[in-house]
Amino acid sequence: MPLPGVTPAQVLSQLAHRLFGPLRPKRTRIVLDYHGLLGRPAGSAADIARRHHVTAPTVRNNAAAVRTAGARQPLTPQLVVETERASTPEDDHLGRVRIAATLGLARPEPPSAVRHSPAGDNDTVPAAMWAVARAGVRILAAVGPLTLPVLAAAVARARRFRERHHLSNGDLAAALRLAGCTVDADGRWHALIGTPTSKRNQAIVTLAAGRDLTRQQMIHILLTAGYSRSSAEGRMSSSYPLFERTGPDRYRLIGSFPLAGPTQPTSG
Q: Own/partner pairs for 108-115, CB < 8 Å, 24+ apart?
């Protein structure tokens, strides 16, 4: 029977609730999160698995179960048109792509990139947009692929953009495309192959990857990478874009998984 939803998101939500029923709400929440319908943009299966304390294959299996049901779901012509239309910069494009796939429809086109001349015509591309794009590229070159929400938060943490970063996630995505970045099927952004990264960032990634750090350990890594003590112990320890706070006196490299077992503080 057709579902009563009037938007693709409503139909997807109703389909998941009907398939899993009231006794398996966790599966429904996982599927909604996978499609960007749980209060945040769609992310990678690994990110969703961490949030819901399951494995990435579990996320994919739950999504696949709804996709099987969605392929048989009757849809109105209006729903088909809305699902398959091209995304705008304000849309969660990955979420829309996943909704379309779940409903058995064609993949929507991504937002159109802003056109610019090879010489960098700032009449068509705002300077602030270029600045944020370059910051995003530096972060991706240092730590590797990241989802858009994680990258946006990292850019916003940088001291340079704490007060002036006003780009929406859609604008940031458009800026990254202008800078040559690409996005994979899991919604992770990649810098161009061969994009250089600074020696400081290389040292930080080498020392911090996979570790659950205290603030003192993070400061020690910044000092080892070559930052002055005043910088490492000052605002940098709370605003360095490559680190995210995960709890009281706990930090880690963005896009990094903590290693098993406790991490002991280092001297320095």
A: 108/83, 108/84, 110/86, 111/86, 111/87, 111/170, 111/173, 111/174, 112/86, 113/174, 113/177, 113/178, 114/174, 114/178
Q: How far apart are CA 218 and CA 197, in angstroms?
A: 20
Q: What is the pLDDT of residues 121-174, one digit of tens each?
A: 444 556 667 777 888 888 999 999 999 888 888 888 764 544 444 567 777 888
Better-scored residue on pLDDT, 219 or 237: 219
pTM recorded for the entire structure? 0.52
In the numeric block, the tokens 């990258």 are attached to 151
Token pair of 18, please? Answer: 């009907």
Confidence of residue 102 (pLDDT cuts 50, 70, 90): very high
Separation between Cα atoms, residue 132 and residue 196, nearest integer Å: 17
Task: With beta carbons less than 8 A apart as the criterion, state whether 134 and 179 touch.
Answer: yes
Q: Which residues are registered as beta bridge partners of 189?
A: 146, 183
**Is the pLDDT at 116 greater than 70, yes or no?**
no
CB 134 within 8 A of CB 176: no
> CA 224, CA 226: separation in Å to the nearest integer?
5
Per-residue exposure over 233-244, b if at least 16 CB sit within 10 Å of its own CB, e if not: eeebbeebbbbb
Question: What is the distance of C-alpha 177 from the center of its chain?
Answer: 15
